[in-house]
Design brief:
The protein has helices spanning about 1-15, 20-45, 50-55, 55-70, 90-110, 140, 145-155, and strands at about 75-80, 115-120, 125-130, 160-165, 170-180. The protein contains seven helices and five strands. Helix 5 (about 90-110) links the parallel strand 1 and strand 2. Helix 1 (about 1-15) packs antiparallel against helix 2. The protein is elongated, with a radius of gyration of 22 Å.
Length: about 180
């Protein structure tokens, strides 16, 4: 995009002094600058420094704490005692799953408590986002929700499984299970 802006500037210098052409070039430059700005904002929104530099535990903990404070919900997280290392694609998948789970709690659950549990062993990694809200409605369970569908595809590509179901008692539970090792294709 920056290269296009530079080429447009060079082209504008060579254009005849036609006001309509100069105005069109100025509009094109404004559009390109808007696209560049939006692209930067999107990249900043999906980048997570904590995940990159401090790891999964720090990124998930910070997200849960921020969510609880922003939404006035009792948000709790339980993490493994040891600071296990995760493959980068697992870290991103776990973070995106937590974001989607919390987004759904905020939008649909009417919950007062959300619990996040990360557990792992030699073979699997499991993330559960459970709330005490109204529970998933039929359409949410049917995987028709865009965010859940994309998340399910991401998890599936890693050989994992995503389940959304009513939680025992009341609320909903979003569970992601990932194999530690890549599946043999």
């Amino acid at each position: 995009m920056t290269a296009l802006t530079m080429h447009l500037a060079l082209l504008s210098q060579q254009m005849p002094a036609d006001t309509a052409l100069q105005q069109r070039a100025a509009q094109m430059k404004t559009l390109l600058l808007g696209i560049i700005s939006t692209n930067r904002e999107l990249q900043a929104a999906i980048w997570n420094d904590k995940l990159e530099f401090l790891g999964v535990r720090a990124a998930l903990s910070e997200l849960v704490a921020r969510f609880g404070a922003e939404h006035g919900i009792d948000a709790r997280i339980s993490l493994p005692d040891d600071d296990a290392s995760y493959r980068p694609e697992h870290g991103v998948a776990l973070l995106r799953a937590l974001e989607e789970g919390l987004r759904n709690v905020a939008a649909h659950a009417g919950a007062s408590v959300v619990e996040v549990i990360l557990d792992d062993n030699d073979d699997t990694i499991m993330l559960t986002v459970r709330d005490n809200g109204v529970g998933p409605q039929g359409s949410a369970l049917a995987a028709g929700c865009h965010g859940l569908r994309l998340l399910r595809e991401r998890i599936h590509l890693l050989g994992g499984v995503l389940l959304l179901a009513p939680a025992p008692g009341r609320g909903a539970a979003l569970c992601v299970t990932l194999p530690r090792q890549p599946s043999a294709a």
